[in-house]
Amino acid sequence: MPSYKYKLLIYSLIVVFGLSACSPFRPAPRDGVTMGLPLSYTLYSSEPQEFGKWWESFGSAELNRMVEEALTADFDVRIAWAKLRQLRASAIKSGAAKYPTLDGFGKYTGSKTGSDGTEGTKGSTSTDKHELGLTASYEIDVWGKIEAKANSGELDFLVSREDVSSAAMTVASEVVSRWLEIQTQRQKKAILFQQLETNTIYQDLVELRFRNSLANALDVYQQRENVARVKALIPPVESRERILLNELALLLGRPAGTVEILTTDFPALDPVPGLGLPFDLLANRPDVRSAGLKLQSSDWAVAAARADRLPSFNLTGNAALTSAQIANIFSGWMVGLAASIAGPIFDGGYRAAEVDRTRAVVDERLLNYKRTVYIAYKEVQDSLIKETWQQEYITARKNQLDAAKTNLNEAGSRYLQGLEEYLPVLSALLSVQSLEINIVEDESNLLLYRVSLYRALGGNWTDSLTSADELSETSVKADAEIKTVSTK
Hints:
By secondary structure, the protein is of the alpha+beta class. Helix content is 62%, strand content 12%.
């Protein structure tokens, strides 16, 4: 009879394990999700090219060093790495349920009974029991619930890795943008000092003509106001430069006021890189990849919620050594095996509501995924449009500046000949000086639009990133190896 029970148990386990291989709630792949993207970009559509660390195309070794430093020292990047480690541990925890658990235990039970002699006996008796053993338990994943939770946790971990890539791309573009904006402020400041010198010369000229009764007091006052105007423009530029340096220091993980950079001209702008197809954004943008992974994770969460409504099967086994005396603990043993099944009968609709909730999460993340793809496509298109028309705008501005300088020369010549009042000269001078400042800002904006384009296109250069902690561990190991070699 006992053998029959063991055979029945074995056959039941075979059936259960066979069912567990089916995973009836496994989600269907979403490879066919249609994004509705156009086949090509409106502007500059060409074959894709890997531009890698795009900031190196600006030709500044100082900028390259700052970006590399920020990729390991920036607080947002380091926080993203810390979250990644958390999700890595959570993924391991989610997958641990796929394996049996084995626990050790030790137990001691002592009791003492006695009699006062009213029943014919008097005395006490002591009973001791020592037990030492192992307990193993395993939940058979019949419906794929454990697998679904493990896969969902693994996908959440991959989402966190994409968040690291997103943070790194953001930091790289922010460092380059701050560097360009600082160079912009310094160029503006240099132009303002040149204008101040020019306006001072004009002021001396007008005052000299006033002393010689060739100009009136209004001309002097107007030019003095122009000198004061240029002087008033310098402090905000210097203030903005210092603020940008402080922002750059924060991106580098340093205190404010501890970063200084060299002054240089604007870098030459390379031709627009190959963009490939809009659909390539699905593989090149970390935020798009992250949204897709979140969608897959929610699909597995639905599978886990559906499987949780069905019974669960558990195996429990234990083996123990037992004895009344600790010295004889190895003289007795006990082995046990148990199988159990448990399933929900009434839970007030809790599990059904959880299925509905997870399905609603899938709908939300599907829409979020599509929105993220559309935003990525829009950002690329916007950057292309801005850069294209900005180049035409700069060309038109420079033509306007040439015309304004011609106007200034003619107005100055006529003023010196006494043919015109000073007002046309002042108006032409203001126009030239305003255009000089504006063109610097326009050229800076052109470079910033290119930074936005690189950021919008994404890339795979973040795949090789290493956290600051891992880098420090590597450097410590390298130093130890160097010391070992040197001692030999």
